[in-house]
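Box 3.1. Reading complex inputs
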Amino acid sequence: MTIDPGRSATVRSVEPGGARDEDLLRRLVAGDDQAFRELFSRYAAAAHALAFRLVRQAQVAEEIVQEAFLAVWRNPDRYDGTRGSVRSWLMGTVHHRAVDAVRREQAQRRRAEQASGMGPGIEEDPVDDLLAAIDLPRERKLVRTALGALPDEQREVIQRMYFEGLSQSQIAERTGVPLGTVKSRTLLAMRRLRANLGEGNR
Amino acid sequence: MIRDHALIDELLAAQALDGLDAGDAALLERELAAHGDCEECRRLEVEHAEVAGMLALALDPRPVREDMADRILAEGRTATPPIERLESRRDARLGWWQAAFGVAAAVAFVFAILLATRDGGSTGVPGSAIVAFEGAAPGELAMSFTPGESGALVWATGLPDPGPGKVYELWMIEDGEPVRGACLAPEGGAVAAFLDADPSSADLMAVTVESQACPDAPTTDPVYTADLGTAQ
């Protein structure tokens, strides 16, 4: 495991007291159950929300979270601090697994629709309660505010890609926006989010 | 030498959101390889990863079952603390995978030749290789890759349905240790998937039936295996 949190995180984790994530990971490498429990209690609910948001199936979401944390428990040394914070590693792991599940589900649904001769079903409205911030913990409010400050077209790309698991070409196909535009909006949105999150963290 | 990072920046932004298409993922791999040990590339990767990691916090937390941490730890305790467990898992599985390796080595060569010659020879790409999988289950499964380069195409026909809530999972076996490759969900028995890794570092490829969550370690015996020594 390489842990060098000092050089990497431009958007700092706001940790709710207790040991730093990186210290918990170090203890985890030594097989410390308590360190695992602390990390789990810190991130499991957020990871579960993310997985459920993407896969929309309670059992699959739970399996994804369990497998992700089991992987952390089994192989904490896979964390590389030069590639970001523990939180981004954990959430990235969960997100990646959930997106895999979403794309498999999409493929199966396409097959079922083709077999039944039906076209694609009515899509859910991607705009939801993400931006309704009432008495939220500081970090959640910060992220929602940063999302809310994005231009609509950039927020839509983030929403469809991160929270629905669509690839850039799928977004282009569904929205009718040229793929090149989707790509440039992705980059602009990420840059603006970083700036907004950085400002909010000061 | 000053390098342009505009393309890498754009690709890394989408990668952090898991939004890259397979072709762009391969392009990113090539670009990063071309930049070598590049501090600016790492900085961009970290920045985008951190932003993506924050996005998850926008959602209202969803409690997990109270016993989930206990169950994960219990599974871990069945052996030992993580580092020792990794070693023991490696030892325990070595025999299992080596047995699979032996079977694959005996029969995969024939399938590889059949597959490679079906359309008149090789993949048509200089330096590329094809390897065919063998198994007791029906269907044909093969992989095309260029040794030493990241990225491989995996395709199959006639695979049986893995069952409700199940998928196939591809593993690269390196020194007897399974490394997660890709999840394969057949449509009408057919699969076409991209493996974002260089399989030539593996001795053996194997496919197991797993839950849709695609676990990090195989939980069932392989249904297909391929000896990379037989690649054409």
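In summary: Chain B touches chain A through 60 residues (CB under 8 Å).
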